[in-house]
Design brief:
93 residues; mainly alpha
Length: 93
């Protein structure tokens, strides 16, 4: 199971880097950041799900909201931090 998760993470990282964000960011730096984000998302999945269900929310709804919440966080972090486009010098001048 761990091997499948690692393979999935590597494939997802490369697809996001090349096809989704078309990033030219340093692979070493962005891969490290991506691994940290993936770990954070994995941990937060349980935390957020527990928080939603502690409010009395049905488990199925809580799971959907958890995944949606973490998807938005992950997408934002990838777009703004990990795979951000390099600003063109003098583009606004």
């Amino acid at each position: 199971m761990r091997t499948a998760r690692v393979i999935s993470a590597v494939v997802n990282y490369n697809l996001n880097r090349v096809m989704v964000f078309k990033s030219d960011a340093s692979v070493k730096k962005s891969a490290t950041q991506y691994a940290m984000l993936a770990t954070f998302i994995l941990v937060m999945n349980s935390v957020v799900l527990d928080l939603y269900t502690m409010t009395g929310m049905p488990a199925q709804i809580a799971k959907i909201l958890t995944e949606l919440t973490l998807f938005i966080i992950s997408l934002t972090v990838q777009r703004k931090l990990i795979f951000r486009k390099k600003e063109l010098k003098g583009a606004l001048s």
